[in-house]
Amino acid sequence: MGMLLAVMFTGTAGYMLLEGWTASDALWMVVITLTTIGYGEVQPLSGLGRVFTVFLIMTGLSVGTYAMTQLTRILFEQNFMEMVRQRRRRQMTAQLERHYIVIGYGRLGQVVVKELRDAGYKVCVLERDPAAVEDAERIPGLAVVQGEGADDACLRQARIGEAAGVAVTAAPVADAIFVTLSARQMNPQIPILTRVDSESSAVKARRAGATAVVSPYTMGGWRIAHGLVRPHATSFLDLATLAVHDDLQMDEIEVTADCRWCSGTIAELDISRQQKVLIVAIRRAQGEMEVTPNADSRLQAGDVLIVLGKPERVRIFRASMLARGRK
Hints:
alpha/beta; 4-stranded antiparallel sheet; 10 strands; elongated
């Protein structure tokens, strides 16, 4: 269509320059020439004008035929709506930052997507099955990329370079490991959690670049066993960790070098009273985990605090941790 409009503009300008016609006469001459209606010349043409008309006819018919062929193909081959959907997908993914990519929208992937969105995070789904893609696109605000999880072009469209993490839930496990390898090559620093079904596949997934692995069978068995013998403790963990609950939230917050809480002890900062959150553990920058830290525990840059509290208090505490300057 752009080419056709360019031909019409060029033809109109040519008649105005060569013949001195008005814009309306020139445009009318172009229209009746390109459509082969044959009303005759608007005004007598000079020799140069006739030569120009010959080239206009040849160019216009070629471009017009091509444009109509492409339009017919789009409409009758039912590609038009697919093109619209692809354009919408590209628009939704174009501005994504600090989002999470979920590769595979099966039963496990759907749970991951729901939990992340319930927690307020931006999510992009990468799925190859058209039926699963159609299901995902029914969710308002969910960015979707259709294609192979191991395809570099699809990973770029999902903006893996700007993502905060990747969940590989695709099946079978061999595909999940291959996807993990591709994602790790595209972004060497990003956290990747990969679905596995055995210890041997877990080893392979880690070798492929998985930051951590998750076995739905192991986690499901653990949940059932602890639900039987420790039902109240298990219910408490569900309450603290699942985004669907709004009474209690467990979260992790990193202590940075310019954080106002850095280098202070828990007692000096009086976090429990002022922030109304409980620090249940500290993962030190060196890697060790300090559970139920005492009041003398000093916070250092690189530490990660595991905190527990009401969701709004946790959000306030996180904001205060990001504030620069000393207390």
